[in-house]
Amino acid sequence: HGADDAASWHERYNSKGPEWRAPGKGETLQRNANGKRPVVGGNTFVVVEADGDDLVHSDGKTAVKAAELIGKFAKQNKPFFLGVGFVRPHVPFVAPKKYYEPFLPYSKMKLPPKIEGDWDDIPKPGINYCTSVNMQMDIRKQKKAVGGYYASVAFLDAQVGKVMAALKQSGQADNTIVIFTSDHGFHLGEHDFWA
Q1: Which of 59, 109, 164, 184 gets the most CB atoms within 10 Å of its CB?
Q2: Cis, peptide link before residue 89, omega less than 30° from 0
Q3: What is the tally of structural domains in the chain?
Q4: CB 170 within 8 A of CB 71
Q5: Beta pairing partners, 125
Q6: Cis? peptide before 92, omega within 30° of 0
Q7: What pLDDT does residue 2 have?
Q8: Tens of pLDDT along 130-145?
């Protein structure tokens, strides 16, 4: 989000990936009651069970580049900082098909209970605009959104695992501080909120 500050980096790497355009089985979940809306990008609840392997996607490319840089910098025998940014598990939920398999069929996904009066103690500005009602997501689509999120998390976990393995292989794992953070999370139906 926003421009890179070139003076802040010695080496910059922004990998490109197909994102929501990835070949595979995709569906736009929100505001698609009749199922005819094409798969779209942006901040939209879309699930794409993508063809290809990890390296087709920007996060797969980023993990490989991070591992390469860890190996390079570890040999210099001096402190280094590496900021590694991943896209997933952000919408659209795009990951190689293999990461979806544990979560299929989507009908087995559990949704949180909907509690009557759940919003009664929330000030109006605090009520989220992304609800299953205004996003027009029926139960099938809600469960698919949860499965898509879980697949995206599994994909991210595999990429972080590659970076951590490279750190261990470099001999620097016990001499490194790893900070894992995120800009936000998803409600996944808690309080009938989604984002």
Answers
A1: 59
A2: yes
A3: 1
A4: yes
A5: none
A6: yes
A7: 60
A8: 888 889 999 999 999 9
- The domain in which residue 67 lies consists of 6-113+136-185
CA distance 53 to 56: 6
d(CA 158, CA 89): 12
> For 106, what's the count of Cα atoms within 13 Å in the CB-facing half-sphere?
18
The structure tokens listed for 87 are: 């896209």
Beta carbons of 38 and 54 less than 8 angstroms apart? no
CATH of the domain at 140: 3.40.720.10
**130 found inside a domain:** no
**Residue 150 counted as domain residue:** yes
Higher pLDDT, 1 or 102: 102
Look up tokens 């840089």; give the residue.
Answer: 69
Asked if residue 102 belongs to a domain, the reply is yes
pLDDT one-digit tens code per residue, 85-129: 999 999 999 999 999 999 999 999 999 999 999 999 989 888 877
SS3 112: coil
Give strand ranges (E) for 121-165: none
For residue 129, being part of any structural domain is answered with no
